[in-house]
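Ticket 4471: requesting a sanity check on a complex prediction with guanosine-5'-triphosphate. Repro inputs:
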Amino acid sequence: MFSFFRRKKAESTPGEVPAALSVETTAPAKDPVLPLDDLERQALAAEPRDGVADDSAERAASAAPPGGFVSRWFGGAAAPAPVAPPAGVPAPPVTPPAATEIEAARADLAPLIAEKDLELAPTSDTAQAARVGWMDRLKTGLKRTGSSISTVFIGTQIDDALYEDLETALLMADAGVPATEFLLQDLKRRVKEVRATDTAQVKGLLRDAVADMLAPLERPLVVGVYHPTVIMVSGVNGAGKTTSIGKLTKHLADAGASVLLAAADTFRAAAREQLAVWADRTQVEIITQQGADPSAVAFDAVGAGRARRKDVVLIDTAGRLPTQKHLMEELTKIRRVVTKADITAPHEVLLVIDGNTGQNALAQVKAFDAAAPLTGLIVTKLDGTAKGGVLCAIAREKPVPVYFIGVGERLEDLQTFKAREFAEALVG
Ligand SMILES: Nc1nc2c(ncn2[C@@H]2O[C@H](COP(=O)(O)OP(=O)(O)OP(=O)(O)O)[C@@H](O)[C@H]2O)c(=O)[nH]1
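Returned structure tokens:
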């Protein structure tokens, strides 16, 4: 699910709900590669880039509230102006608002919320089929490797052997030791509580336990509180970043948001071309600069997003491995430079993980979070994996919200993560 708050027109009377919502119509991208024009360059050049305190550490700490699940912070209805302070003047501290302030901001914005919370719900029969298909394919994957959790419950006895088999099955599905131990204990408690007498009941209780464990990861991606909402997308090579950006762009554009893509993978020509294809398909603009510093592209894109009054700027970054220290540092730099272009940005830092990666996905979450604090995940390729249990490991050991799951290569194959559905697919 993502919530999309419409832009409040500057000329609107306070409290007045604009009759015609002010989201721009995205112009068809005739030439998908749009360099900054002179005026925009001058406007950006006029904005000092120096003297902005690096508040990333403070923000990293503050963006992780107890439990670590609230993935974003709001500046309230009156978001801080997205400009850098004059040179030499230290940046004002960016303090995340308290929960009550967030609620107040939401209430203020309520009349401006488009339609209501928009959800990446299946909009067509095809998408509905893809969703059903994903659940089937996840279950099939688990069966194929002989690690099906479901088969554990074929017998009738609730005994130690059942729990042992279940432990093995959970570990085989890459749930990891801490999550597996937690789930087993939780399950035993539930079994005792309801005095379960047959294994079918136990299976249902395990579904509940997994769903409860994953529930905190089910969070909406909110865009539209900031203009533009700047979303950085990171991940290892081939995880599905560009494809996911394409899919997300489609959903955002369908919801009426104007999107600007930034190809900050400046090394691989194919990566830029791939993003340009998605831009073309979804009819949005894209900023690319061959061979440029990725941070410079990101900086320019944020500036262009403001100048062109975009609702969302999506920054695609190059694939990198956590072991490639210099590339991880580059990610830190991109994030820092984005903050220089807009002191409130990036508003979201997403990590795309390949659902087939299993336990390594957890290591990726930790490593990327250390380089550029994460606010959300997109888990791809869940249409054919035996390792979906890793989400339990993430929930237990490094809880970062899962905004979306990828269940195929088509545009409509991006689904909102639903803990209960996932638990049902995993447990069978
Ligand atoms: N089956 C399946 N394939 C996917 C999914 N998401 C992405 N892919 C495929 O995975 C491959 C890699 O996707 P990309 O989007 O190019 O990955 P990337 O992370 O941008 O790659 P780099 O730029 O090389 O780091 C492509 O063939 C995609 O079609 C998914 O949810 N399911």
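Notes from triage: Confidence is low (pLDDT under 50) at residues 5-86, 91-97, 105-123. Leaving this open until the requester confirms.
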